[in-house]
Specification:
- The chain is of the alpha+beta class.
- It has 3 domains: 47 residues, Uridine Diphospho-n-acetylenolpyruvylglucosamine Reductase, domain 2; 114 residues, 2-Layer Sandwich (Uridine Diphospho-n-acetylenolpyruvylglucosamine Reductase, domain 3), CATH 3.30.465.10; 107 residues, Enolase-like, domain 1 (2-Layer Sandwich).
- 35% of the residues lie in helices and 27% in strands.
- Strand 8 and strand 9 form a beta hairpin.
- The longest helix is centred in the last third of the chain and has 19 residues.
- It binds flavin-adenine dinucleotide.
- The site of flavin-adenine dinucleotide has 30 residues, from strand 2, helix 2, helix 7 and strand 10.
């Protein structure tokens, strides 16, 4: 059906060697759940598909120097099954409950999700609340790219030609942080791309005041990112219903400030507020 050669190297060094010789003609393939859709639609043409999905070097989940390492070729199903991810990055594990269908989850990878740079990539907000960085290798050696800087725009990846992501490095949760969540609204409950998604990691003092907060929004802006103004607004305060609605309202105004008032704002403006308050409700003591 497609006039392409499928290449499946056994080692990362072989993959890099192949890439360095065939950069312009090669597309990296992991689960293929975006690549195959793009090839069928004619948006993507290439001579070689380089399958990195089974490279051992891209398939680690471990704690390294106090940080959580998640290999780029780890599938969404494996994220959902990982106790280590559940312990150190529970919001990321929650993605697996809400991502596509079982068939897609079984092959779709976190590296593909991030590198595709869709504004709706479900794993991105949970990675952002852990200040995740991608470890990248390519013709000029190794470098670290913050996940927040991976997309230069919707579906535009900032990786250089010939570079591939080997793994992600996530801050593990600070000791005083007990609240984690990932929420997503799609057109349906199952098999739906997010119309909006959010992730949060929050710590509270014994009086309820917020002593640590990271919050990220997906699908509503050209690229998912942290909303540090909202974090700063809530930091140090004791949440009550009014505060949560005020923060939710500020969030939807900030979102509109970035995107402009599109037709979808009629729906998104109240939906963002509502989803934000619903997510933060457990913080009320
Ligand atoms: C029916 C269906 C439902 C879906 N539902 C959801 C959903 O609910 N939520 C969601 O977020 N997404 C969804 N998607 C999109 C897709 O499944 C995800 O984006 C998935 O995580 C992509 O991973 P993959 O391994 O299949 O990537 P691939 O399709 O193999 O690759 C995607 C992109 O990433 C690049 N790439 C892959 N691995 C690397 C690497 N290690 N280094 C550098 N570049 C790399 C590829 O070259 C390509 O540009 C859905 C797709 C389908 C078809």
């Amino acid at each position: 059906m497609f006039d392409v050669d499928y290449i499946r190297p056994q080692k990362l060094t072989d993959a890099l060697a192949f890439l360095s010789e065939n950069v312009p003609d090669t597309t990296i393939l992991a689960g293929g759940t975006d690549v195959m859709v793009d090839m069928r639609s004619g948006d993507l043409n290439c001579r070689y598909l380089l399958d990195v999905g089974r490279l051992e070097e891209l398939r680690r989940i471990e704690i390294d120097d106090g940080n959580l390492t998640v290999g780029a070729a780890i599938t969404i199903t494996e994220i959902g099954e990982s106790d280590l991810i559940g312990r150190h990055a529970p919001a990321l594990r929650k993605v697996a409950d809400k991502f596509a269908s079982r068939q897609v989850r079984n092959i779709a990878t976190v590296g593909g999700n991030v590198a595709h740079c869709s504004p709706c990539g479900d794993t991105i907000p949970p990675l952002l609340i852990h200040d995740a960085v991608a470890a990248v290798v390519g013709p000029s050696g190794e470098r670290i790219v913050p996940v927040e800087e991976m997309a230069s725009g919707p579906y535009h990846c900032s990786l250089h030609p010939g570079e591939l992501i080997t793994h992600f490095i996530l801050d593990t949760k600070p000791a005083n942080v007990e609240f984690f969540d990932f929420q997503k609204i799609g057109r349906r409950k199952e098999l739906a791309i997010a119309r909006m998604s959010m992730a949060a990691m929050i710590g509270q003092e014994s009086d309820g005041s917020i002593s640590f907060i990271r919050f990220a929004l997906g699908s509503c802006t050209p690229t998912p990112h942290r909303f540090r103004d909202i974090e700063n607004y809530l930091m140090g305060k004791i949440p009550d219903k009014d505060l949560l609605w005020e923060a939710g309202n500020a969030l939807s105004r900030q979102m509109l400030g970035i995107t402009g008032r599109r037709p979808s704002a009629v729906y998104k403006e109240p939906a963002i507020e509502g989803l934000f308050v619903r997510m933060m409700y457990p913080l009320l003591k």
